[in-house]
Amino acid sequence: MDYAALRRIRNSGCEFLTNFSGEIGLMRQLRFWSCRRNHEIYLLSYEDNDVGYVSFVHREGSAYVTIVVLPGYRGKGLGKLAIDYLKQFYNPIVAEIFASNLRSIALFEKCGFHFSGAGGDKVVLRFPVFPN
Length: 132
Description:
132 residues, 34% strand, alpha+beta, six-stranded mixed sheet
């Protein structure tokens, strides 16, 4: 895993992350990723460049997903490809998104996720176990 690329990508979209929206340094990132249990992360590549990542935590019988794509590569279908891939292996999948992040909400809804709740400034979208 290229942790420097991962940190660069993560920090480029940190304002959209619901768990911690500040920039992080390499040592904090290494501690964070090495201490996580039931957690997987994959880099997204486009034309041989690391341009995003998908991470998810297995918790409470669901896969909680986070997708971050560098600004210059958004809108190229990478998020949709990642979600479609995950849907083949994980069900249910949950995404917790800031209510103001309309682009991300639209992406997950386009991929078949449905609103399942809200709290504070966040909404929760879920890909159902048994789709309607």
